[in-house]
C-alpha cells in the first residue's frame, strides 16, 4: 500500500496536466505583477513570460550559480555566460552584474526576449548582455562558445504529440523530451574548452529518461548540487547537473 501511495504521489508531482494548469494560473492570475522584486532589485514582467515570483526555480538557479546578492561580491564572476530559456532575463542580468564580461540571454518566446531587453536596459548592462530569439542555440553565430551555459529546463515530460497552446507553456513542459535531447546533443559544442554546461532539473521531471537520453547522445550527467523545496504540499528535489562527454 505504501509503495502504491508513493507511486501515486510521484505521478501527481510529474503530471504534465498539473504543470499546464500551473502555467495557465501564473499567466492569468489577477495579482500577476508588472514589476516584481528579487535580489533587492526591481524587474519588469511582461504578459506571457514565466513569472519568477510564482515559482522557486529562478531563485534556486541563482543559488546554484552563486549569483545571489549575498553569495559573493559583485564583479567576482568571470568569463562568458549563456542563459538558455532566459524568460525575464533575470539570471543573465545577474551574471553580468557579478562580472561575466559577455552574456547572452536566449529564449524561443519572443515576449521573453522583449522582457529580457527591458531588464537589460533597466539595470544598465546593455554593454555586455544581448537578448536573442533562439530555439536553444539556433540563432547563435556558428562557433560562438561560452564558459558557462545554463538552462533551467522545462523539466516536466509531456506526451510527444502535445502541441503548445501558448508560448508560456514552453517554460513548463517538454513534449517527448525532444528539447532536452537536442540540448544534450548540442550543448558541449557551445561550451568553451574548460567551460561548464549546466542543467537545472527537478524531481518533477523524469531523471531516468534524462539519463538514458544522455547515454544516447554520448554525454553523461554529473550532479553538482541538490536541494529540496516544498512546493504547495509536495517536496520537490532540484538538481544542478553538469553535462560532460
TrEMBL record:
<feature type="domain" description="Methyltransferase">
    <location>
        <begin position="82"/>
        <end position="154"/>
    </location>
</feature>
<dbReference type="Pfam" id="PF13649">
    <property type="entry name" value="Methyltransf_25"/>
</dbReference>
<feature type="region of interest" description="Disordered">
    <location>
        <begin position="1"/>
        <end position="32"/>
    </location>
</feature>
<keyword id="KW-0489">Methyltransferase</keyword>
<dbReference type="InterPro" id="IPR041698">
    <property type="entry name" value="Methyltransf_25"/>
</dbReference>
<dbReference type="GO" id="GO:0008168">
    <property type="term" value="F:methyltransferase activity"/>
</dbReference>
<protein>
    <submittedName>
        <fullName>Methyltransferase</fullName>
    </submittedName>
</protein>
<dbReference type="GO" id="GO:0032259">
    <property type="term" value="P:methylation"/>
</dbReference>
<dbReference type="InterPro" id="IPR050320">
    <property type="entry name" value="N5-glutamine_MTase"/>
</dbReference>
<keyword id="KW-0808">Transferase</keyword>
<dbReference type="InterPro" id="IPR029063">
    <property type="entry name" value="SAM-dependent_MTases_sf"/>
</dbReference>
<feature type="compositionally biased region" description="Basic and acidic residues">
    <location>
        <begin position="8"/>
        <end position="32"/>
    </location>
</feature>
Amino acid at each position: 500500500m505504501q509503495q502504491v501511495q508513493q507511486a501515486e504521489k510521484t505521478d501527481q508531482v510529474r503530471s504534465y496536466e498539473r504543470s499546464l494548469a500551473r502555467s495557465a494560473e501564473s499567466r492569468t492570475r489577477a495579482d500577476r505583477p508588472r514589476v516584481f522584486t528579487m535580489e533587492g532589485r526591481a524587474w519588469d514582467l511582461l504578459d506571457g513570460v514565466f513569472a519568477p515570483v510564482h515559482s522557486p526555480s529562478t531563485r534556486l538557479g541563482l543559488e546554484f550559480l552563486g549569483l545571489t546578492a549575498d553569495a559573493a561580491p559583485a564583479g567576482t564572476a568571470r568569463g562568458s555566460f549563456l542563459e538558455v530559456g532566459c524568460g525575464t532575463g533575470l539570471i543573465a542580468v545577474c551574471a553580468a552584474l557579478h562580472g561575466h564580461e559577455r552574456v547572452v540571454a536566449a529564449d524561443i518566446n519572443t515576449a521573453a526576449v522583449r522582457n529580457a531587453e527591458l531588464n537589460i536596459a533597466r539595470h544598465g548592462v546593455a554593454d555586455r548582455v544581448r537578448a536573442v530569439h533562439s530555439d536553444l542555440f539556433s540563432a547563435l553565430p556558428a562557433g560562438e562558445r561560452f564558459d558557462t551555459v545554463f538552462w533551467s529546463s522545462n523539466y516536466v515530460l509531456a506526451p510527444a504529440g502535445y502541441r503548445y497552446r501558448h508560448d508560456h507553456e514552453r517554460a513548463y513542459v517538454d513534449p517527448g523530451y525532444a528539447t532536452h535531447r537536442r540540448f544534450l546533443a548540442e550543448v558541449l559544442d557551445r561550451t568553451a574548452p574548460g567551460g561548464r554546461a549546466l542543467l537545472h532539473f527537478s524531481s518533477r521531471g523524469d531523471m531516468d529518461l534524462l539519463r538514458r537520453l544522455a547515454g544516447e547522445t554520448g554525454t553523461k550527467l554529473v550532479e553538482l548540487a541538490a536541494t529540496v523545496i516544498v512546493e504547495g504540499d509536495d517536496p520537490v528535489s532540484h538538481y544542478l547537473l553538469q553535462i560532460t562527454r
